[in-house]
Each structure stands twice: as C-alpha cells, then as structure tokens.
Design goal:
With 340 residues, the chain is of the alpha+beta class. The protein has eleven helices and eleven strands. The strands form three sheets. A five-stranded antiparallel beta sheet has the order 6-5-4-3-7. The protein has a four-stranded antiparallel beta sheet with strand order 9-10-8-11. The longest helix has 19 residues, at 313-331. It starts with a helix and ends with a helix.
Length: 340
C-alpha cells in the first residue's frame, strides 16, 4: 500500500476518534486505532509510530491540507475537536475554489467518450452536483479523435502494463499484406499526433505498435513478463514522435526557417534540444539534436517552402528527393477527372 493511502487512512481514523463525544482518546489510543485500521485494509500487522501520529495531528491542525482542524488536548492527556461539529470531511470551499473545480470538471468531461474514462462519468456528475457546477461550454478544447480505431484497446493495454502481463496481439502494419501475431511485453502507452501507440518489448527489442492497426489482443498467461522499467521521458528524449532506435545516436540537425515562420518555431520548438544558431534578416537558423526518423521527416516536410534543411547531408538529400517527387505530381498533365 502506498504511503499516501496509508496517510489518508490514518487521517480518516483520527477524524473519527476526535469527533467521538463518548470516549476519551490518549495519544496511545490514537496509535492503536490507526494501527488497527491499517491492519484491516492491508491484512497484516502494521504498527504506527508515535512520531507519525504526532505529525499527522500537526498536519491536520495546519493549513497544509486545508484542514485547520481545531484539535485540543484537555486534562493534558486526551485529544478531541474543540468544535463538536467539526470534521475534515466538512471542509468548506470558497467561490474561487468552486470556480477552479468547475473548470477542472469541464476539462475532464472532454475525455468522457474514451473507453478508459467512461467509468468517470458518474464521478464527474457527482462532482458537478457537489460543487453546483454551472453548465457551460468548454473554454479549453483538447484535440482528440474519439472515432480513431483501436481506442477500445486502451483499457486492456493499460491493465496489462499495470499488472505486468504478456500479450498476444494480432497486428497488421501498413506495409504488411496479412495479420501477424506478436507476443509482446507491454511497457508504455504513448500518444503522438492524435494517434496512440503501445511501446513494448518484442524479441528482445523495443517496438511501437499503433493501436489502430491492432485486430485482437489476448493475455498470454504462460509467458513470464519482462519489465524494462521504462521511463517515458528518458526513452523519448532524443526523438520527435514515437520511433526510437536503440542503436542510433542523435544527430545535429540544422535548418533555416524564413522570417514569417521563425517566430512560430521559436515559441513552439520542434524538440526540447532546439537552439538558435543565427538570426538573419530573412529568417533564423536553428539546430536540434535528435535521431533521424520518419516523424522528423514528416515534421520538416510540413513546413514546405518555408524551411531549408542544411544538415545532415543524407537527410537533406532524402528530403530533396521527396520534394522533387511531390513537385512531379503537379507537373503531370491534368487528370481525366479534371478534364471532364
């Protein structure tokens, strides 16, 4: 059990004791009550120290968690609330708190159609009722695609990662002719460019599988799960997107952006490693240090004529080839459909 949950159980137990009008509780009594409550939740002996309960009482008295509980010691021995009607569960909130909670509810409601958030619908309704939330249009709009194929697998994948289960996934990549079964060790769920990916261990290497290319998922109870203890921030630190090569070193990518688009790139960097090399009259030269992957190419190509890639040379040639091929499509004679 996490230390945060332990603390919540102790606070709830202390609150119950301190508002009890019919019994006197010493510090030792409070220790015993909290130890007993933790035993009921965990099913094993869990003795709470005197120092822990003293800190809990101190925190409940303070503004740290918003309680400011009126805890008093009478006869230099017994603990109780000086206000018999007080409880940490009856904390009032001001108008500012209500507005903040209402804003948070409106943001959370945008996720209600995702399968993994459907169970939150009832919770959100209770929150709205409890804070008298005002029905209003959302001021913050999050980009999402609820119709994207594969979103129904998020729950299954999330639980598999949480419970460390090996999966058999029927999968068909964009380049494959038929579906294949992948036995994988799921490590992380990743969203990029409004698509979801599973980062998993497959045959000793890390792979990313798009959820919209999955056809079926089964739990493999016979295989032993391998936990790579994957840190998402560290794993993706050298890439744009989701394609990570464990053998590729990041390269310095230098490019020029014209003056009409340079402010956009300055305020919304292409990667956290981005640096300004030189400001010119007609634009700005930037550099980023990343692995060279498909998503990077797509990002650079998206700027069209507003960006010029300087180096690395191999990537520059590949971008040039793609642009020439794109131009050739517009150089061809008008299609029969357009001539009709």
């Amino acid at each position: 059990m996490s230390s945060n949950k332990n603390a919540l159980i102790r606070y709830k137990t202390l609150d119950k004791c301190l508002k009890n009008k019919y019994r006197k509780y010493t510090l030792e009594d409070l220790i015993d009550e909290c130890s007993e409550a933790l035993f009921e939740y965990e099913g094993k002996e869990s003795y709470v120290s005197k120092r822990t309960i003293q800190l809990d009482l101190q925190n409940m008295r303070s503004e740290k968690f918003g309680y400011e509980a009126p805890i008093e010691v009478y006869e230099r021995k017994y603990y109780r609330y000086s206000d018999p009607e007080y409880s940490i569960h009856h904390i009032s909130v001001n108008e500012s708190d209500l507005k903040a909670m209402n804003n948070a509810i409106q943001i959370l409601k945008q996720f209600k159609d995702f399968s993994m958030f459907r169970e939150m619908n009832g919770v959100l309704q209770k929150l709205e009722d409890s804070v008298n939330a005002v029905q209003q249009k959302s001021i913050i709009h999050l980009d999402k695609n609820e119709q994207l194929k594969g979103l129904e697998y998020i729950d299954v994948l999330y639980q598999a990662i949480l419970n460390k289960k090996v999966l058999k996934i029927l999968y068909k990549s964009f380049t494959a002719r038929d579906f294949s079964t992948y036995t994988v060790h799921p490590q992380l769920l990743k969203e990029f460019n409004n698509r979801w990916f599973l980062i998993c261990l497959y045959k000793g290497a890390m792979y990313n599988l798009a959820l919209d290319r999955m056809e079926n998922i089964e739990i493999d109870e016979q295989s032993v799960y391998i936990d790579k203890d994957l840190n998402g921030d560290e794993f993706f630190k050298d890439v744009v997107g989701v394609t990570v090569s464990e053998s590729m070193h990041p390269r310095n990518v230098t490019f020029f952006v014209d003056k009409s688009n340079a402010p956009y790139v300055k305020t919304k960097p292409l990667h956290h490693s981005q640096q300004i090399i030189e400001d010119k009259e007609d634009g700005t030269v930037f550099s980023i240090k990343v692995q060279l992957n498909y998503e990077l190419e797509r990002l650079l190509l998206g700027f069209g004529e507003n960006l010029v890639l300087y180096r690395p040379l191999r990537l520059k040639k590949r971008i040039e080839q793609k642009l020439r091929k794109a131009i050739s499509h517009y150089s061809e004679p008008e299609s029969q459909e357009e001539n009709q």
